[in-house]
Every structure is written in structure tokens, then in C-alpha cells.
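Lecture 7 notes: from sequence to structure.

We start with a single chain of 353 residues. Read the sequence below before looking at the structure.
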Amino acid sequence: MKIAIGQLEGFCSEVLRRAGVDEAGALTTARILVLADAWGVFTHGVRNLGGYLQRIQAGGIRATGQPRVTADGPAWALVDGDAALGMVGGAFAMRTAMQKARACGIGYAGLRNTCHFGAAGCYAVMAARDGMIGIAMANDTPTVTAPGAAGPVMGSNPFAFAAPAGDEPPVVLDIATSTVAGGKVFLAAARGEPIPEGWVVDGNGAPTTDPTVFTAFPHRGALTPMAAHKGYGFAFMIETLTSILAGAGVVRTLASWSFSDSSVPTDHSAAFIAVNVAAMPTGSAFQDKVGAMIREIRALPKAAGAGRIYVPGELEWERHARAVQEGIDLPAEVASALRDVAMKMGVVGLPSS
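Now the structure, written as C-alpha cells:
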């Protein structure tokens, strides 16, 4: 299915409004999901709309939820997401961190009582588009093993960093702390394809190429941490900055957003940091220097057979530029999921192919 960005945003927004989400929340969620798809990150975009709707209709996500600051100081805030959509809580918390950064140079917002928030990079980019450095991260239910463990220990705990780069698109790093995001394993299972060795281990901690070892629930296996102990340590750090600092569910007290009882909030958490570079003596030259560094990297000698050297996020912005001009080319399984949602909610507006 090829579809224009605005058309897809309008469809998703209408679906969410019919489910009881207010106009602002529906539009925020739609824009975040569609941005992920425009970047080519289809595991974190509109394919999840049906799952969010299921939780809204059962009560585990509050359609009318309104995030609010429950405690704050000059440079920090704690936010209760009110069990609203994760995109609604995440955008509110990042805006709160940015507001603190404007006043103090740096701001932190810890978000609790939220749900799956999609692609972390979407929130980091909010700050970068406002001339700030943005950092976003979240915890999740245990799906990732650790060195020496036979089963899952931590969540895939995503992390994103974005920085403005002058005339260049913002630099964006968006990674899971697992070797690969769990959504990619589910995508392989849906397609009936094997996965590369090193992505998943079975219940005994042995490598496997069978994605269903992980996608079955309860999980019979686990994702591997990126870079072994380094990814595990990174996930541990994110857990402390999100759930523990924000006062949310920690590791096994979380519920899976896609497999648990849909009538119960999952109590996921996230953290957002904004750095107001303009408040610092080096701020006036910051964006120009980031842009110059990008161009310097591009000009470095290439390895044999390599056409270019990419900086973090460059591939995604190139896909985004194509999507703006030509529309988003959604994979078949995403298009099928959207058509199911359209039929269920009685919303028209999707192209036939």
C-alpha cells in the first residue's frame, strides 16, 4: 500500500477519535506513528494501531487520559501519564523537559503510568527541531537475556539521541539495547522467515534462528543484548533513569502491552532529557560544528566497495524525504493490519493498493 503522509495521519487520527481519544491526542499519536513509518521503521509505526485500539476498548489504555506533572523542581519533573496512549504521555513529558531546559539549560522528565510509546527517536527529534539536544528512553517487560542467564533479564529498553545540525537534518540515533528490536523478530515470524543467528537464544540460552521461540507467549527464549555485557549494562542504566527514578513498575512488575490483560494498565515508564545548547557559551556555534563534522565524516576515505559513510539517522531522513514526495510504501502485513482496523472502526480513506 502506498499512501501519502497526510492521508495516513488523517486515517490514524480519525480511528483514534472514534475510539474516544480527543483531537489533540489523536493527532499527536498519528504524527508519531507515521513519522516512524516515513523513516522506514515499520515495526514501531501504524502496524501497532490495532493493538492500541484493543487496549483502549478494554480499558488498559485510557482514551481520555491526560498526563500531568505530579512533582517538579527547576530542572526536573515527574509526570503521571494517566494510562493514556504512550505517544500522548511521551510527547507531553518531552515538552515538559524542553520547558525546563529553556529555564535552566537542561531538563529531565520522568514518565510513569504510560504504555508502549513507539519509536524513541520521535521524541528526541522534538527537541532537535527546537534547537536542543534530545534524549529519550523507556523500559519494557523482560525479553532480553544477560551474560550467564538462561532466560530474559531486562527489557529491550530503547534509547534515542538527536541533535540539531544546522543545514543538515538532525542527527538521530534510535536503538534498542537488544541486538535487534523484538518487533523485527515478530515481523520475521509473521512472514515465516528465519532470523539471523545471534538475535535470539532458546530457553537454554543456546542460539537459534527460529523466531517463534521468542514470539510464543510466554516466551520460550529471549533476545540477546547488543554487544553482550555492554548492552546489558546500558539497559540497566535506562531502567534506573526511567522506572526507578520515575517511581513506576520495575522489570517484572510491568505488564506486556501486547500480551497481557488488555483491561489493566501496563505501568511502563520513560525518561526524557533536553539540553538547551543556546544557553551555553558554545551554543552559538554548536549546530554549525555538528554540520561540519557530518560533512567531514562523509569526505573520509571509503573502504573497498563502499559508496558512502552514513551518520546516524541519515538513511531514515532520506527515506522520509522520499515519503514526502512519493508517499510511504507500507509493507503488506502493515497494510493488512490497517485494513482490519478500517473495517473494525468503519473508517474509510485507505488506498486499495
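Residues 158 and 337 are 24 Å apart (CA to CA). Keep this in mind for problem set 3.
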